[in-house]
Structures are given as structure tokens and as C-alpha cells.
Amino acid sequence: MAMGSIQESAATLRAATFRLSTTGQKQLALIAPQIAAQLWHCKDLLSTTPESTKQNSDVSVAVHRFKTKISSLLQDRTFEGRWAAVILTKAAVEAGGVEVLSKSNAWVRSLIGILKRAGDPPSTRALAVVTLTRIFMLTWDYSNLVREITTPALPGFVSTCLNNVEHVRCSQSELQTVLEAFAILVPRHPTIFRTNETQIRSLLTKIISTPSSTGTSGLCFSKQNQHTAHRVLVLLHQCAPKQGAAEKWDEALKSTVAAAHASCDRTFRAVVETWSSSAGVQRSVAPGILLQDESQLDSDEILGLAGWNGIHAGVERIENLLDHLKAYVVEETSHAVTMRLGLVVDLLARIFSVRAAYGKEHGLQINNQIPKDERDELFRLLPGLHVAAIALVLAILERFQHAVDSTCQPLLSYVVDAFLSERAHVGIRTASYTYLASVLYLHGPGYEKQDIADIEPIVKSCCQELLPLDDSSTPGSTVASGKIAGVAGDMSLQHSKSGSGHPTVLTDLHAAANSLLPLCLSKLNAACIPGKLRALMDRTAVLTQHKDAMVASVLNPSPKTAGSGIATSLLPLLAKQYPNEAEVEA
Q: Where is the Pre-rRNA-processing protein RIX1 N-terminal domain (predicted)?
């Protein structure tokens, strides 16, 4: 390290120490982020061993005084001072590397002490959790530091965090921070978490069981809290002793599927289900008992979740269990496990078999012994349930890709049927576009005419989603009707009567449709696409000035028309609208 650089870093540390010493306690929280940002420029000095700075006593004194100031602020009487100290501790450890990390034991003890302070605001405790988690992570590359710092401090950290989140003063953001910290630390320190596994599992099941809109005992959990709770609950299987992690993971997966079926038994009682299990699943309760009182589940003994009461709570419980199954698919494991896709697909088949719209055409029989109000509420909630199911299907496809080719087509047919029944629901359309995009990316080139005919309703809806209501006023609409556009210019688009105005911002729905269109044009065999559908896709690409879709259309042109023998192409329009783009030059 150059002498000039050392002197500059030392001057920065002296200035930071002076500013911290002369600033009022109430203003420390305001200047701490600025000083923390400056510490990264001093990383070479902070990471230098004391032996290297012995020749320059001023430099070593500057480093020592700065570290001493942080230690003093960690014990400060005001929460503003402690808040600033937490920020500076994290910045110093990250900038100083192993040299600062190896001497951070006292800081770790002080940070755990801050976690135990009942009077500090939730933001201070959340920042302390983040800082401690970061320190623990940085020790992973050094086995001696794991023994000296992480192993002694982690049990106290875990128990303190659990005590804090179970208190009524805990905010959703603090809870979220603790859950994310557990998700990071559990895979690396399962034996330490094993001591508190029962308490952690109890907390997680309470988070998952509690509806997001209401809370019990003064607690209210957000969707983000529940999502992370699913992750941590799945990861807890690694706390199993000896070699029992894989077996525990398998048992938990089967229990989740069984719990979902138990809730389906009670939630779907308003209809006569046509589903027949291919995995040998038996109903959890006799049909006669289902008709008594209202739809409810006293307690979920399978997973240890709280009971639910009412059709709305029942549907939300199934959605939560689908999210939990998604966590099993997405989260990595430390051991090889067997994914029982047959059980999961069997559950999905049951959920997709109950659809809201035009039930008589699909053989959906109504159970007249159940009040009409409950049946109407079920049909109102079904689209949201199917969105959660499609999210699970998408996770399976993205995780296993070509390994699930045999189940890809049945799963796609479930999604298409749900789309046809409930396309008025924005979430269904968004999820369908996203899922179809993933399917086409993997399997699109192998699709035949019948396969394309099956997904045609989704592709048409995607185009209608993107096209403006008044396409005559859209730039490019005049050229689209000329000879260059060919068939695309002659086709008139039938807009959805139920659609509102074209979105002015790129919402999730618009973004999903925007991503699907170029994949339809690039991945599908042009010879198998019906002429009217190809014309609609080309016209949509032109009128919306969708560069990626136009490029895909040019690279995958439609075959020559049988009558005229002329192949249409969007290349002239693409060259006119994007003359300087690399794709056009190529």
C-alpha cells in the first residue's frame, strides 16, 4: 500500500472520528450513512495488520481511535448513538475484512446487547440483525473465526431474535429481517438452530396460519412475511439429527400435500368434484360430515397449522399450502431428495378441475345442499386460487425444465382450461402469459398445429392486451395497412368488450404480454401457425412498435401464401423504425 494512500485513509478516519465526537447525539443518525460510505475508501488501511503500521504511529493511532469510537457508540445511552454505531460497525467489518473481523468479538456482544434493549426502535434492532448476520457470513471462509465468533454468539442471537419477534412491539419489517437472517444461517449452522427448532417452527406455522388481513394476539403478518416463513420452514429439515434430513424433507412434503387435500375436501363442498386421484389420495372426512355447519377445519394436525373458519379462510389456506409446496420446489437442499411430482400434480389436477365459469358445459355439478352464498363466494375466489396453482406449475417447469417433459402438456392443458374459464381475472391472464412464455422457451420449436391451436386463445388475448383500443391513431397504423404489411394490414382486430383503456404504464399484465409476444414469433414453427393468428401477431408487433417481436418475425418469416406465392416480411418496417439498431444492421 502506497504511503500517500495510507496518509489519505488515515486523514479520512481522523476526520470521521472527529465528526462523530463533535456531533450532537441527536444528529449522529444523520451523519452515520455518510461516514459509512467513506470507510470503503479506507479499506486498504483498515485491512492492514498492526505490524505493517508500526512504522507510522499516527496511522495506527487513527485506526485505534476510530475503532474505539465505534465501541463507545455501541454502548451509548441514546438510541441515536447506538443506531449510528450499528451502521458503522457493518461498514467497518466489510471494509476491513479479516483484520477487523477477527477483532469484532466485543462488537458482536454489544450488538446482541442492543437486540435485547426493549426501548430501541424496531429499525435499530433490524439493523443489528443485518449487521450480525453479515459478520457471521464473513466468518464462513475462516474456520477459526467460526469457532471464535459465530459458534459462541449464534445461540444467543437466535434466542434473542425469537423473543423479539414474538413480542407485540415487533414490526413487520423487523420480523421480515429476522426471517431472512434465519433463511441465510440455517443451512450453514443447522446444529445450532436445532436447539430452537420447536420454537422456530411454532412461530412459522403461526405466520403461515394467520390470514394476511387480520392478526391474532396483536400480530399481523404481511404476504412477504408469509413467503419468507415458507422458505425457512422448508429449510428447517436440515436440523434433523444424523442423516435424517432427506427423510424429514420427504415427510414434510407429503404432509403438506395431505393438508392441502384436507382443506380442499371442505372448501370444494359446494360442488360435486369430478376429480379422481391418480395417487391413491383418500378424502379426509366423510361426505355426510362435510354438509354440517359451515365450511371449516378445527385444526390442521398434519402440519400443526391453526384451524380456519369460512370459505374465504379455506381458500386462503390452500393458497398458502401451494406457496409452501412452491418453496419445496425452489429451495436448495443439502442432501439429495426425491421430489414426489406425482403427488403434487395430482393435487394440481384437483384444484384446476374446479372452475368458476360456465360450469355446466364442463360437467361441473352443483351441490344443492350447500347455500348459494357459499357457492358464489367459492367461484369468486377460485381465480386467485388458480393463480397460486399456476405459480407452482411455473416453479416446477423452471426448476426441472426438460426433466418434466412428460407432465408438461397435461399441466399446460390445466392452465389453458383455467384461462378459458376465468380470463376476465387480471391475475389469471398475467400468470397464463408468464407460464406460456416459459413453456414456449423450452418446447415451442417442437409444437405441431394441434399444439398451437390449443394455446391460440392465450396468444390472441396477449395481442389484444398490447394493442391500443384506437389503433388508427397509433403511429405505424397507416403503413401497417399497406402492401409491406401484407396479411397483417388486412385483418381487423376484435377488441375485448370487457377491456378497459390501454394501460399507460408497463404493469405486470402488460409486461407479461410484452414478453410473450416475441417468443410466440421466434419459438413456434411458422409453418404450423394459422394465417390469421400470424397476421394478428405481426400486426400487434407493428402497431405497438415492439422491436423484439418485429425482429423475431423477420427471423422466423411466415411461408409463402398459397395463392400469391409472396412471402410477407416486416423487414422494411423494422428498418424504417429502428435504422440504427444492431439487429437491423445484422
A: 13-213
